[in-house]
Design a protein that fits this description.
Order of helices and strands: HEEEEEEEEEEEEEH
Radius of gyration: 28 Å
Structural class: alpha+beta
Number of helices: 2
Shape: elongated
CATH architecture of the largest domain: Sandwich
CATH topology of the largest domain: Immunoglobulin-like
Number of strands: 13
Number of domains: 2
Mean pLDDT: 86
Low-confidence stretches: 4-31
Strand content: 25-35%
């Protein structure tokens, strides 16, 4: 009987160890969940017949394969951002260039390829000389790294929306060397994409030189009267 009791205690001990191991394993899995970095295209308003500035942001989140919390060589130093815009008839022209924290940096490679309805920006910076100064875990949407300048024709329908959709395949972040192990994309769940849009507003009529001169004269007369009766 004593031998049976000892055997029963041994089984219970093994079961307890197994349960604890499972709990610890589950906790480790939850602890290893990666907070993805984020690429965001802003949502803004723009008048028909105007050029609209649309900021593009990257947020550097701690715990992801790339970032300021990672060792040298594993920082966000290269990005490929592709935007599809529609309807194309509502865009007369579009450019995609660096801005914000990358505007003063010198890339080792830069290109902005276009095709009907799409535009991309590809930049790579040397980490040792042109570290991109992200704010780690900054508030969303993160740091501005680029901007789209979108020319809306005067014939665009007021109230319509121009969508600016991030391509899930070709929008990626990586280190300076482009190491496959550090690539972040929506496909490997290391990158969150937030697409943007432009809502078309009524155009603002441009004032003629004569109208501007009359306005200036009226303001000058009002100023003189205020000084006289003050």
């Amino acid at each position: 009987m004593k031998q049976y009791a000892n055997h029963s205690m041994t089984i219970r001990a093994v079961l307890l160890v197994s349960v604890l191991a499972a709990v610890l394993s589950t906790s480790a899995l939850f602890g290893a969940v990666i907070t993805p970095d984020t690429v965001t295209v802003a949502t803004v308003n723009g008048a028909a017949g105007s050029v609209v500035d649309v900021p593009v942001y990257i947020r550097d989140a701690s715990g992801s394969p790339l970032g300021l919390d990672q060792p040298p060589g594993s920082r966000i130093q290269s990005y490929s951002i592709k935007v599809t815009y529609a309807p194309t008839a509502s865009v007369s022209s579009i450019t995609f260039t660096r801005a914000g924290i990358t505007s003063s940096l010198t890339p080792t490679f830069e290109n902005s390829p276009t095709s009907p309805g799409t535009i991309s920006l590809l930049d790579t910076f040397q980490e040792s000389t042109n570290l991109i100064p992200f704010t780690l875990n900054g508030a969303l949407p993160g740091n501005q790294v680029a901007h789209l300048l979108v020319t809306i024709p005067s014939t665009a329908t007021v109230g319509s929306v121009i969508t600016l959709t991030l391509d899930p395949t070709l929008t990626q972040l990586t280190d300076e060397a482009g190491n496959p192990g550090t690539i972040e994309s929506s496909g490997n769940a290391r990158l969150t994409l937030v697409s943007g849009a432009i809502t078309v507003l009524p155009s603002v009529p441009a004032m003629s030189h004569f109208t501007i001169a009359l306005l200036a004269l009226a303001l000058a007369l009002i100023g003189a009267l205020v000084i006289r009766f003050h």
